[in-house]
Amino acid sequence: MQDVEDSSISYKQYFAQLQTLLGEVNEADVALVGDLFWENYSRSARLVLCGNGGSAATASHLVADFQKNGYLLGGRPWECLALTDSTPLLTAWSNDTSYANVFAGQARCWLRPGDLLVAISGSGNSPNILAAVDAANEIGADTVGLSGYGGGQLAQRARRNIIVHSNSMQLVEDVHMAIGHALYCSVRDRMSLRK
Prior knowledge:
The chain is of the alpha/beta class. Helices cover 62% and strands 12% of the residues. Helix 2 packs across helix 8 (169-194) and helix 5 runs parallel beside helix 6.
């Protein structure tokens, strides 16, 4: 019975930490990024996301929200894609060049000046994420970094950043998903007002 009580305490601690971190999200930073998303949609620009591991899942999940609902709610297609979603491309770029180039190679194919790259990295130091941001910046796309752990190098390279101030990867990933959904809801609400 003691183990059940101990685990209950750890659940409460986790949820309390998550609530604290959500409360500490810089809303002004999120609002600026929300404006970028809306401008991206309004100009028929392309939205591209990337991440590793749990952040890859977040990138794919958010593309489903933005692409599908951009069309269903906004009445026109929104070119949204996650650089994580093609296993053949991921393995080809990593095998034929290096894993550090797995997203940058794709970014150079998909991004145009004025498009938007959202790079998600819990640590802010993933070499393949940094390379993708560098490629996007060179192309003239706008770049947004979602990170934790103080922001890492990503906070120095992305033009706009939202940093979750935690050293727990699980908490950082949870907050990143909440931020993504908040951004989606902001765009969705603007679409509704425009009808």
